[in-house]
Design goal:
The protein is mainly α. It has helices spanning 29-48, 55-62, 66-72, 76-100, 105-122, 124-132, 134-161, 164-167, 173-189, 195-217.
Amino acid sequence: MKENPAAPGNRLLPTEGQLRTGPFARGTVREATRERILEGAMKAVSSHGLSKLEMTDVSASAGVSRGTLYRYFSNREELLHSLTIREAQDFWKRCVEALEACERDDERLKLLMLHATRYVSDHAALQRLLETDPAFVLCSLRQSFTSVRDELGRLLAPALENSGPVKAGVVSVDQLVDWLTRILVTTYLFPIEDSAAMESAMESMHGLLVGLRGSDEA
């Protein structure tokens, strides 16, 4: 029997011994300041967008001097790169924590779909970027699509292996992961204004998979 990497007890997150060490280790003053700057940068992006964002906006939003800001990040590109990594890690960390608390594969699939759509719809900076810098968003999505799809596959494969379309031989797990990834990207680019309607659409998609499995087994 294949081990389910997202099942309770199978930790996907790093243990304390695997966390960063050195000047930015958890609990250090430098780590706290760095996080303060990145949080300020996220607020600044939400307010100003990306194309007009300047380092002075970040220092003001984070409540640190420009000298402190430049000691941690030498330029705007380095700051934005670190911010992107931070947000991606935070998203996957939340996904994994939610999945580890869920015992049923079919519920795990629905949980991740709902979590992902809620995350992008509630993330002020992501929504602001879509409004002010659509070219940047599209370029970033194209560059990161494969890695996002692969990560979703790692989390969802055990659930999708038991889904109706896969068991019926209609589609492979990889094809289904690719389809779901494209659906999630689309919900970000073309959001449904009514959040309840958006979640209902995700519920319906999940119900289709579960329903097909049920009809096959009937």
